[in-house]
From TrEMBL:
This is Uncharacterized protein. It comes from Pseudonocardia nematodicida.
C-alpha cells in the first residue's frame, strides 16, 4: 500500500487544483501550504474560547442533504447569522471513510464533526480579523512600491489554515484535509460510476 501523502504535500495538491494557482510553481505552492498550516496552528493557539464554549459563541445547526448537492458540502458558515451549518450525512460518510482507510488513530470517533465546527470557526476568523495576517504569513508579495508591499491572495490558503486550526485545537495526528480529500475522491468515483451506469442504460 502506498503511504498517505503528508499534510503539506496534500495541501500543495489542493492548491494546485485551483485554477488561479495554475501558473504558480510546485515549490511556491508547497511553501504556501507549509506557511498556511503553520499559521492555522498559531491561530489555534491564539484563539482560546471560554471553557465549555469551544465554538466561540456560534450557533450550530444540523441538516442533511450535504451529499445530494452538485458540490457536496460537509459544513458551512452563514456569515449573516453567524451560524455554523453541519450536514450530518456528509459527516457520517467521512466517519465511515476514516474506518475504511484505517485512520482511526488519527481521527477518534466524533472528531469529524468537531473538526468541521472548528474549521468553520477558523473561516470566520480568517475572513475577518485575520485575513491580512494570513496573506502576510503565506508571504507571497504581489507588488512592491517603495516600502509598500501588496500581499497576494493565494486561493486555498485559508482552507489549509482552517484545517490546521481544527487539527491543532483537537490535537489530531493529521489534518482533516486527509479525510475531505478522500471524501472528494470517493464521491468523484461514485459520480463516474453513476454516469457510466446511466450511459449503459441509455
Ligand atoms: Zn473550508
Amino acid at each position: 500500500m502506498t503511504p498517505d501523502p503528508d499534510d503539506v504535500a496534500l495541501g500543495a495538491r489542493l492548491l494546485s487544483g485551483i485554477p488561479t494557482n495554475e501558473a504558480r510553481s510546485p515549490e511556491l505552492l508547497r511553501t504556501v501550504a507549509e506557511r498556511a498550516r503553520a499559521f492555522g496552528h498559531r491561530l489555534a493557539d491564539l484563539d482560546a474560547p471560554a471553557p465549555g464554549d469551544p465554538t466561540g459563541g456560534h450557533r450550530v445547526v444540523e441538516r442533511t442533504g450535504g451529499l445530494d448537492r452538485d458540490t457536496p458540502v460537509l459544513a458551512r458558515f452563514l456569515h449573516r447569522s453567524g451560524t455554523i451549518e453541519l450536514f450530518t450525512d456528509s459527516i457520517a460518510f467521512c466517519e465511515s471513510l476514516v474506518d475504511t482507510h484505517g485512520w482511526r488513530a488519527h481521527f477518534p470517533a466524533g472528531s469529524v464533526r468537531a473538526a468541521a465546527v472548528l474549521h468553520e470557526r477558523a473561516h470566520h476568523l480568517l475572513a475577518g480579523p485575520y485575513a491580512r495576517d494570513l496573506r502576510v504569513a503565506v508571504g507571497h508579495p504581489a507588488l512592491r512600491i517603495g516600502r509598500w508591499v501588496h500581499w497576494a491572495h493565494v486561493a486555498g490558503a485559508e482552507e489549509l489554515a482552517a484545517h490546521a486550526y481544527a487539527a491543532r485545537r483537537l490535537g489530531l495526528g493529521r489534518s482533516p484535509l486527509l479525510v475531505t480529500a478522500a471524501a472528494s475522491a470517493a464521491l468523484d468515483r461514485r459520480a463516474r460510476t453513476v454516469k457510466e451506469a446511466s450511459t449503459w442504460a441509455s
